[in-house]
Amino acid sequence: MPSRRTFVKNSSLLTAALLFQKDLFYSEEKADIGLQMYTMRKLISHDNAADIIGRIAAIGFRELEIFAYTEENKFWGMKPEAFKALLGLHGLTAPSAHTTLPLLFSEGKTDELTLACEAAKIIGTKYITVAWLDEKYRKNAGDYKNVATKLNTAGQLCRQYGMQLAYHNHDFEFKQLADGTTGYDIILKNTDKELVKMELDLYWVTKAGIDPVKLFKENPGRFPMWHVKDMNKTTGSFTEVGSGTIDFKRIFKKRKSAGAGHLFIEQDEIPGDVWESITKSYDYTRKNLMRFLQS
Asked: Could you read off the pLDDT of 170-220 as tens digits, one per residue?
């Protein structure tokens, strides 16, 4: 029979091991922070894409949200198979791809969406995300209802590829229309919640004066992705996460009701060094916010 001293010692070692295991898991959770590649658009090119993506991974990012795939340019000159291999080399995935679908909204054609889905399927992307809605398609409530119909159509096509359609907001969707509604309300109410998810941009929704936590409560599980970027205290423009006015801790605490599983740091404009900026945002998010995803 082991002595009491041996039992206590072994129990202490087991507890320490479990805590160590928990810390490892916690670190892995912290590492699952994504970067929207639009942030890097002024730096990345066909010539340096591989190096840029390697440096992003070295900071600690584990997910990328890609954008602007075309048949001509591919992924910064790389075919989907080569791009997937590059991501794998650096331990990265690309769960979401931003796209614009002008032919869908103007003529109801899905050629652009099909191209995006075919490329995204090769690299393992889950979400095809509508990044922008041109002003000519959103002048009134009727326009937004038409947009919602087109989004449902696009969502059905994405489902055929085993993917999920999502819609990314700016602030214009929250402006009150002549009938008292907003474009965002119309999109939420007139799209199938299973076919069309929402990627909530925490900067733009805050700039519009809308409480994201209220949106989560009213539309639980509808927001599987967030754009995480902060608002400058003086200018109201973009700044690094943790440097501005947005109460991210309050928002992150409601992650479960939102249904959020992917967080992409983005900064539309960066006046200083891009690498310093994204590292600062990453570090703040990892150290101060990711723990709330455990609760």
From this structure: 999 999 999 999 999 999 999 999 999 999 999 999 999 999 999 999 999
What is the distance between the alpha carbons of residues 36 and 44, in angstroms, rounded to a whole number? Answer: 13
Q: Kindly report the CATH number assigned to the domain that includes residue 263.
A: 3.20.20.150
- 3-state SS string for 177-230: CCCCCEHHHHHHHHCCCCCEEEEEEHHHHHHCCCCHHHHHHHCCCCCCEEEECE
CA distances from 136 to 58, 105, 143, 166, 190 (A): 41, 10, 9, 20, 19
Residue 262's domain comprises 32-294
Rounded Cα–Cα distance for residues 152 and 113 (Å) = 13
On the CB side of 78, CA atoms within 13 Å amount to 22
Chain centre to alpha carbon of residue 274: 19
Distance CA 57, CA 71 (A): 26
Backbone phi and psi for residue 231, each to the nearest 5 degrees, phi listed first: -115, 125
